[in-house]
Design goal:
heterodimer, A: mainly alpha, Histone, subunit A, two-stranded antiparallel sheet, B: alpha/beta, Amidase signature (AS) enzymes, 16 helices, disordered C terminus
Chain lengths: ~100, ~500
């Protein structure tokens, strides 16, 4: 399957990444190799097979909706690259 | 290095634990000896990202106090220095995932496995190196540099838990925790000549494990022998309300399974595992081990494992898809690296991620975004989930006839440094024997079964049915009792000579 530089641009945007002009060709080639290999799955007949996203028969797991952790806002914000007034700070997004 | 010190750190974890209990040695002496060995050797092997000297010494005193007060009597590993892979959150201790994007991240909480270790008196001596976000098979994708194989420093230790495997092998820790999404405990264990267990999905809580592919990830132990590994598994296993995929119906008393008895055990060997691609010396070594188990009373026969040829394809689709979702949380806002170059919020996201993630991680996130994108979802993602179902059915069918499945852990012994990353597809294909186990959520163990002509260890893998840990432990322990395990000649970085 042919992967174009436009496709690379598109998946990079989906993944919120930038790929430089110089890298694009190599990334396209790498993706193409991997996806060609992955596509060998087509040789396996899966008609009528239920897709399996989880291996064990665990259904929705519920618990009481009660708070068990402490208020750790100050601690959590210590990891933020930038914070202000007890919140995460980001560049202005609305004029 | 004094003879005594070297002898102490080469003991098994359970032996050291017993000596601590019997007051032949204090926890502080054990921890100091371990730190001395790390200081001497880690510049040769680079098993660690973070070494916790002060914390470990302080912790040693606290554990000693508990022991002196008669506590921790039923914890066989109390006071034993151990290491933790750097994708498992440790409160107040830097947890980087070997990535620039988390280079300064300090968790505000402990993963459940860390809480359980602490409760049982463990002393964490450091956080180990790994492939960035556990994506890789060599530990070469770490932002903090590669780890060397203790058997030969020109070779990789495997990955992604390469630092944990190297630390245990180089006697820089008595045992360690790793994580296994597609073989990341078993393959480095095999390359470094140690034992590693990937438990049944749901046996060990994933709470606090920085997610790669949530439906495949599982934390597990690495040790220098089967018994140490099993003792550690018993500590970390158990139901956890904080992980909704945690299962609460099983017995976790794995130490009971350490018996040398495989009489009547039915062992299946998938024919396909021994076809093209498997190194001849590895093959011979695995078949010899099978012969040993047969001579001890097990029945061994070959069979066809359905759909397993497509495991690598299915695995990479599912793992990358889940990764592209899981890693969207790293955006330069809540923690970790933020780019200094931005004009607006979108730039903060894009540039922080592009500058913060390494190539392999970006590559997998893009594969993930592609296979989930409209127009390709059915052909790739949905197809992979169906293939996964068929692989699982293949295993279920096999376990109607066999108690365990035996095969190699990896097609070759450890490759040289720098040989793998240039061809990602080739690297992915080296996961051929391990990924199907994760797709099916099964337990598996890798242990050493020989050494090749290059002097590098060979690993054998036993796969059990869901919650069949005790079967594979019994087989592994029985094999180990017969064939033992070799140890590498270790270096001291100061001289570059054997010590």
């Amino acid at each position: 399957m042919k992967i174009t530089e436009e496709t690379v641009q598109y998946v990079a945007a989906l993944a919120k990444l930038t790929v430089s002009e110089e890298e694009k060709q190599k990334v396209a080639k790498d993706l193409e190799n991997i996806l060609d290999y992955i596509a060998t799955m087509d040789q396996l007949n899966t008609e009528g097979v239920e897709p399996m996203s989880h291996v064990l028969p665990v259904k929705n797991v519920f618990r009481e909706d009660v708070v068990t952790n402490q208020d750790d806002r100050v601690e959590l914000l210590k990891n933020a690259p930038k914070s202000k007034d007890g919140s995460f700070a980001v560049p202005k997004t609305v004029e | 290095m004094s003879q005594n010190l070297k002898d102490l750190t080469s003991l098994s974890a359970l032996t050291l634990g017993k000596m601590i209990k019997e007051k032949e040695i204090s926890v502080k002496e054990a921890v100091s000896a371990q730190l001395d060995v790390i200081r001497q050797r880690d510049s040769a092997y680079h098993s660690y990202i973070t070494i916790l000297e002060e914390e470990a010494i302080a912790r040693a005193a606290a554990v000693q106090k508990q022991l002196d007060a008669g506590e921790l009597m039923d914890s066989p590993l109390a006071g034993v220095p151990m290491a933790v892979k750097d994708n498992i959150c440790t409160r107040d201790i830097k947890t980087t995932c070997a990535s620039k994007i988390l280079y300064n991240f300090i968790p505000t909480y402990d993963a459940t496995v860390i809480e359980r270790l602490k409760k049982s008196g463990a002393v964490i001596i450091g956080k180990t190196n790994m492939d960035e976000f556990a994506m890789g098979s060599t530990t070469e994708t770490s932002y903090f540099g590669d780890t060397k194989n203790p058997w030969n420093t020109a070779h990789v230790p495997g990955g992604s838990s390469g630092g944990s495997a190297a630390a245990v092998s180089a006697e820089e820790a008595f045992y360690a925790l790793g994580s296994d999404t597609g073989g990341s405990i078993r393959q480095p264990a095999s390359y470094c000549g140690v034992t590693g267990i990937k438990p049944t999905y749901g046996t060990v809580s994933r709470y606090g494990l920085i997610a790669y592919a949530s439906s495949l990830d599982q934390i597990g132990p690495l040790g220098r022998n089967v018994s140490d590994c099993v003792a550690a598994l018993e500590v970390i296993s158990g139901h956890d309300a904080k992980d909704s995929t945690s299962v609460n119906t099983q017995s976790y008393s794995y130490l009971q399974a350490l018996t040398e008895d495989v009489k009547g055990m039915r062992i299946g060997i998938p024919k396909g595992y021994f076809e093209a691609g498997l190194d001849a010396e590895v093959k011979e070594s695995i078949l010899n081990a099978a012969q040993v188990l047969k001579s001890k009373g097990a029945t061994v026969e070959e069979f066809d494992l359905d759909a397993v040829d497509f495991a690598v394809s299915s695995y990479y689709v599912i793992a990358c898809a889940e990764a592209s979702s899981n890693l969207s949380r790293f955006d330069g806002v809540k923690y970790g690296y933020r780019t200094p170059h931005f004009d607006g919020l979108q730039d903060v996201y894009k540039n922080s991620r592009s500058e913060g993630f390494g190539n392999e991680v970006k590559h997998r996130m893009m594969i993930g975004a592609f296979v989930l994108s409209s127009g390709y979802y059915d052909a790739f993602y949905n197809k992979a989930l169906k293939v996964r179902a068929l692989i699982n059915q293949g295993f279920q069918k096999a376990f109607e006839k066999y108690d365990i499945i035996l095969g190699p852990t990896a097609p070759q012994t450890a490759p040289g440094l720098g040989e793998s990353l240039s061809d990602p597809l080739k690297m992915y294909l080296s996961d051929i024997y391990t990924v199907s186990v994760n797709l099916s959520g099964l337990p598996a163990i890798s242990l050493p079964c020989g050494v090749d002509k290059k002097g590098l260890p060979i690993g054998i893998q036993f796969i059990g049915k869901h919650f069949g840990e005790k079967d594979i432990i019994r087989a592994a322990y029985s094999l180990e009792q017969s064939i033992g395990y070799a140890r590498p000649s270790l270096q001291s970085s100061a001289t570059g000579k054997e010590v």
